[in-house]
Amino acid sequence: MDRMKRIGVIGGMSWYSTAEYYRVINERVQERLGGHHSADLLVHSLDFAEIRQCQIDGDWERAGKIMGASAAGLVGAGAEVVVLATNLMHKAAGAIEEAIAALPVTAPFLHIADAVGQEAVRLGARRIGLLGAGAVLAERFYAERLARHGVEALVPGAQTRARLDEIIFGELTVGEVRPESQADLRAAVEALAEDGAEAVALACTELELAITTAEVPLIATARTHARAAADAALAT
């Protein structure tokens, strides 16, 4: 094979899912190359408390500057592929792409919704449900990216979206998984399936730590994105 490209991961949002990215990327490289091979990667783990405050305040300009600076730092340190290890912060994807494009040496930014859209197509699912943080579900930035792949996104109602935020930010991002919350997640998946979803994307990287099986295929976005990053690093 040609030289493996260096992957840059913008992480820490939360560190639990970033750890999953690190594991899956290395598993995929070892699966592809065998032996003692592991990924050539850099991780910039941000302080999630600062990013969470930007989310609460709706200060997406500041969040974008933080994301863009992180991406630029990774590329400056030799990253040849950049991934953002969170779904919600892809609301700032434009700031990341602009920061990278302004550098003397650039690198592709792999958007998580592109990886999810490609996986949905592979599964033959043209209508998928989304479970994730409120902004991912209530706004269009994620669904519009999926639409580029011919994939329609279904989202739950306001009450379920509020409950998802409670589970994500009250439990999963601080390392807790409560049985009653797992039951609520399963019910949310079932409701989306009843509405016509052919698969459900866990569009918060921590959700796949709480639910792994359902009556319809689940797209684990962190795992899907991480495998896509490894494949991009190994592409000739």
UniProtKB/TrEMBL annotation:
Keywords: Isomerase. It holds the Pfam family Asp_Glu_race. GO terms for molecular function: amino-acid racemase activity. InterPro entries: Asp/Glu/hydantoin_racemase (IPR015942), Asp/Glu_race (IPR001920), Asp_race (IPR004380). Belongs to the aspartate/glutamate racemases family. This is Aspartate racemase. It comes from Pseudonocardia cypriaca.
